[in-house]
Amino acid sequence: NDKDMIVMLNKYNWENLQGQTNETIQSMIVRGDNTSHTAMAKTVGLPLAIGTKMILNGQIDRKGVVVPIHKEIYEPILAELQKYGIQFVESNKDIPDSLND
C-alpha cells in the first residue's frame, strides 16, 4: 500500500528590461494513487504517451531526436497533463531595490 510523491520547487530571480529584479517561484506536487499508478509513472509515462499520441496523429512531424523546447510540442503536452492534475503553480513578485544591495 505504499504511495510515492514528487515535490518540485523552482525559485529564481531575474531582471526585466527596466532593471527591476523579480522573483519567480514554480512548484508542483504529484501524489501517486497506489503501487501501480505512481507519481513517477504519471510524470514520466504520461508526457511520453501524450507525445507518442501527437506523433501518431501527425501533430509532431519533426524527425530524429527532438528536445521538447518548441512551443508546438510542449504547450499541448502541458495542457493535457493539467487534465491529469499535473501542473506547476507559478507566482511572481517584484523585489524592492533595497533588498538587492
Concise synopsis of the structure shown:
The chain is α+β, with helices and mostly antiparallel strands. It is built from two helices and three strands; from the N terminus they run ββααβ. α1 packs across α2 (71-83).
Characteristic key phrases:
single chain; 101 residues; 3-stranded antiparallel beta sheet; 2 helices
Helicity, as a percent range: 25-40%
Question: Which series of helices and strands comes N to C?
Answer: EEHHE
Secondary structure class reads: alpha+beta
Helical segment count: 2
Question: What this model shows, in words?
Answer:
- The chain is α+β, with helices and mostly antiparallel strands and 101 residues long.
- The chain has two helices and three strands; from the N terminus they run ββααβ.
- The protein has helices at residues 39-56, 71-83, and strands spanning 5-15, 21-31, 89-94.
- It has a three-stranded antiparallel beta sheet with strand order 1-2-3, covered by helices on one side.
- The mean pLDDT is 91.
Could you give the topology of this structure?
Elements: E1 5-15, E2 21-31, H1 39-56, H2 71-83, E3 89-94
Antiparallel strand pairs: 1-2, 2-3
